[in-house]
Amino acid sequence: MLRHLHSRASRAGVALLIVLLVGGTVSSARADGSWSWPLGGRKIDRSYAAPPGPYAAGHRGIDLAGAPGEAVTAVAAGTVAFVGDVAGTPVVTIAHGAERSTYQPVHATVEPGRSVDAGQPIGTLLPGHAGCGAAACLHLGRLEGETYLDPTELLGGRYRLISPDGPPPSPPALGSGVLQPPLAAPVTSGFGMRIHPITGEPRTHDGIDFGAPCGTPVAAAAGGTVTRVGRAGGFGLRVEIDHGGGRVTSYSHLSSASVTPGSAVAAGEPIARVGTTGTSTGCHLHFSVHDGGVAVDPAPLL
C-alpha cells in the first residue's frame, strides 16, 4: 500500500498513519498464525515487490481481484487501528499483535477500537485502485512496525521456512513405506523452496504435488481420524487426518470429499477426488505431512 509517494503531503499522510497505528490495541491472530482470504476469490492480480527504501518504488502488498461492492473481511482476529483516507485513498488497518493488516480502497463499516474476528466483514471494495487489471482490486498490506512484509507468506496456511539459496529441489523418489501414497501418480513438485507457479516468486512448498486428472480418487495415507473437511484459503477444498503421535496429513485442491470430520479411516481408504480448487494452476493433489505442527517432507515417508 501507499505506493508512489512523491509529495510532502503524501509523506505527511504516511507519518500520521504510523502515529495512529502505533497506539493501536494489540489483539491475537489465528492460532496457527495464518491469514484467511479477505475476498471470496483467490486471484492475485499483482504480487508483492519489496521496495529498497521507505519512499522508493515498489509494491508494498498484493492486489486481489474482486468486484466493486464486494465484502472485504478481516484476515485474522484483531482490533481496528485506523479508518480514514491516506493520500486520498480510503484505508482500513487492523492490529494483530506485532503485525498489522491494511486494506484499500475500502468503504469501511467498522470504526477504530472495534474488535474483529477472522472472516468478519470490515467494509466493501471500492473501484479505482491504480494498476489493477480487474474491475476492482483490494490492495492487502502487511506491516511489522514500519516494515512492509509479504502477505502471501501467511495466506492459506503455515509454513516452515527453509533456505532459498541454490536451485529448488527436484521431485524426490518415493519408497520408504511408512505412509501409503495417496494415489498412483507422478510427483510433479517436491517439498521445499520453489518458484511459485502463480506469483513467480520464491516460496516454500510445504508438501508435494501429484499430477493427476480432476476426479482421480484420493486415498488416506494411513489410518486415522478425519479432523477437518472444508475450504482452507489457497489450498482450496482440503481434508486433514490425524494419525496420532502428532502426525497429521492433509490433501488439498480437492474437487470433492467423501468423508466428514470425526470419521475413522483406514490406510488406502478413498477419502476424496483430485481437483483444482483454491490457488491452483490445474488438476493436482497437494499432499502435506505435519509432525508436531511442523511441515516435513512427505517423500521419504512414502
**Helix share, percent:** under 10%
Using only C-alpha atoms, the radius of gyration works out to 20 Å
Architecture of the largest domain, CATH level 2? Distorted Sandwich
Distance between the termini: 43 Å
Annotation, overall tally of beta strands? 23
Q: Which regions are unreliable across 5 or more consecutive residues at pLDDT < 50?
A: 1-32, 157-163
CATH homology group of the largest domain: Glucose Permease (Domain IIA)
Beta-strand content estimate:
35-45%
The helix-and-strand class reads mainly beta
Q: Specify the overall morphology.
A: elongated
CATH class of the largest domain: Mainly Beta
Describe the overall structure.
It is a single chain. The chain has 302 residues and is mostly beta strands. It has two domains: 8-153, Distorted Sandwich (Glucose Permease (Domain IIA)), CATH 2.70.70.10; 187-301, Glucose Permease (Domain IIA) (Distorted Sandwich). Helix content is 5%, strand content 39%. The protein has one helix at residues 8-22, and strands spanning 44-46, 62-66, 71-73, 78-86, 89-96, 99-104, 106-108, 115-116, 121-125, 136-144, 147-149, 187-189, 192-195, 202-205, 208-211, 217-219, 224-231, 237-244, 247-257, 264-265, 270-274, 284-291, 294-296. The strands form four sheets. Strands 12, 15, 16, 17, 18, 19, 20, 21, 22 and 23 form a ten-stranded antiparallel β-sheet that branches. Strands 1, 2, 4, 5, 6, 8, 10 and 11 form an eight-stranded antiparallel β-sheet that branches. The protein is elongated, with a radius of gyration of 20 Å.
